[in-house]
Amino acid sequence: MSTRTPVRTSPLPLALVGVSLIALAVIATAFGLVVAGGSYESALPGLPDPGATVGWGTPIVRLLTDLAGIATVGWLLAASILDPSGKDGVVSRTGRHDLRNAAISAAIWAVLAMVELFLELANVLGIPLSEAASPDLVSTYANEIPTTRALLFMAILATVVCIGAITSATTGAAASWTLVAIAATSLPALAGHSAGLGDHALATTAGVAHALAAVVWIGGLMALAIHAARRDMPLDRAVRRFSTIAVIAIILLAASGAANAYTRLDTPAQVLTTGYGQVLVTKTLLILALAVLGWIIRARIIDNLGTSSRGMVFARIAGLELLVMAVAVGLGVALASSPPPRIEALLPSYGESLLGFLYPPAPTTSNVVFGFHLDPLFLTGCIIAGVLYLAGVVRLVRRGDKWPVMRTICWLTGLAVVMWCTNAGISVYAQVSVGLHMLQHMTLTMLGPIFLVLGAPATLALRALKPAVGNERGPREWLIWFLHSWITRLLTNPFYVFFIYVIGLYGLYMTPLFGWLMGSHVGHVAMQFHFIASGYLFYWVLIGIDPRPKPLPYWGRLMMLLLALSVHGFFAVVIMSGTTPMAVEWYGVVRPEWVTDPLRDTLNGGQIAWALSEIPSLLVLIVIAVQWARSDDREATRNDRQADRDDDAELRAYNDRLAALSRRDAEPPSR
Q1: Which of 111, 112, 155, 587 is the right S-S partner for 65, CB 3.0 to 4.6 Å?
Q2: Distance of alpha carbon 213 from its chain centroid, rounded?
Q3: Pairwise CA distance, residues 447 & 416, whole Å
Q4: d(CA 106, CA 65)
Q5: What is the mean pLDDT of each successive set of 10 residues along the chain, which is 671 residues long?
Q6: pTM of the prediction?
């Protein structure tokens, strides 16, 4: 590590640069709004008009809110991953400074999110800002409108991040708050007009992915550029680490940008014939320019960042990148605030409009098993998980190590099950039939995770990843930290796992929560994530190969499995004994003609829940028995080896103890 004395630049020039970048982003936003057709126009007489302050202020404040969120993520990313760290993950002096900056940015972010909430409320209701700020109006509508609800939760999370950043002293805590901040930045994308377009899943997934990639990329580069200008820490390791993050972000931006364009344009010609398309093309060209600048840094500068001159060159190029990014962010806000050219196709019924697609035909084995309905989130996630796993296996093989073939087969089988549940015909029918939803749910939570757990991905990663140098935390060290953290201790606690996996069934299906979650794409995705995660945690505790805190004894695992099976069976009996259809607020609306009896459909769901719980439980019971037997064999082998090393000292000591007791018993009693 370099020992040169840090040379700090005056904060005034950096502040002027920051103000200039914000001003440039504001100008780009205004320009994009005018070209894309999202600028404010006075309403016709007699129609509600919030006024020019709200019309122009809403996108401008949205831009400022986004920039504050980007800055928060950037400082947290620097403190947790990019900055030098001390022993045992304690943040350095530079990291503490970055955490303080993150807290300030988060506080500003929370305030701007609330200001944007008032502006959005005024914009949606068509009233002046002074009326929208009324406490009665806010309490009535703020949680009812998706965009304002997202901003409310964003402000809450930003406040939590602010407090967390102030009180954090380790890179692990900083990383946790980084994830919270990144999640908060995605909330507007979840509540935007993506859900109003066709291809709900693709539009929402692409919007969230685009936002997350941009936030991480821009935020990280901002923090690095400021550190380079101040010359207050070595840059070579930080830039190398961020370079990998930037490459992933660029790829994700390109893929999600193409998907966004597909969901917002009716024809390719609209790219050039509409103002929206022209702004989109301009933003795309700017991102390509950023990719070129990033390549220049990676190819020509990154290898010699230890020298002062190279550090200043990096600072200048990074500043140029931020200049282009400011324009791109402004244009992105303009696009998000403007109506897309695509006109949503009207579907024949209200239920089909809620679904976003036509009702499927009556279910057959071919339609359910071999049909296809794209879910880009789970499809892409499964493909990436499979590729990374195989890459780890290949690295071990090339190194001369062995990896059990059955673990690879189990992992790929588990991913195939998840892909089938989320992308096959069952994924469509599960949205209109309770019975087929239960088929999807039970397969997703009781079968897929068994194979995923037996694939032992964490063990593979620990063997394939290279250790970091010194006190720094690389991917392998972060994985070790997670496996030994209080988070994992909580997640693998048998009582918590049992509650989430089994008792959660009653909280989901015996309350209005089920119908409410089915009513939105985000809720549906969250429910599927819950199924996969709860199943994975449950089987990790029972049959997991990966290391975890305080493994449960095998007899305890057997008792937990039998208890879960009985509680699950009772749940199925309750459904089969029901007298009213389940989740009528959803399934009663999205009801194809072939669902003639909703109550019978619900009862079928109970029968499926009963039947499908038997096979996975039997499979897990066999695995527990095999692992238990192998554990006893390994223990016996260890004892035999120990006996060979010490000439069976333990047995001889035991025999000597018995002989001593025998001699004492044989002695006559003393008087």
Answers
A1: 112
A2: 12
A3: 11
A4: 10
A5: 45 74 93 90 74 90 96 94 81 91 96 93 86 81 84 95 93 92 90 56 85 92 88 80 87 87 85 90 89 74 59 77 91 90 80 86 92 91 95 94 94 96 94 93 93 95 86 84 90 91 84 87 88 94 90 91 89 89 91 92 91 85 88 60 58 62 63 49
A6: 0.85
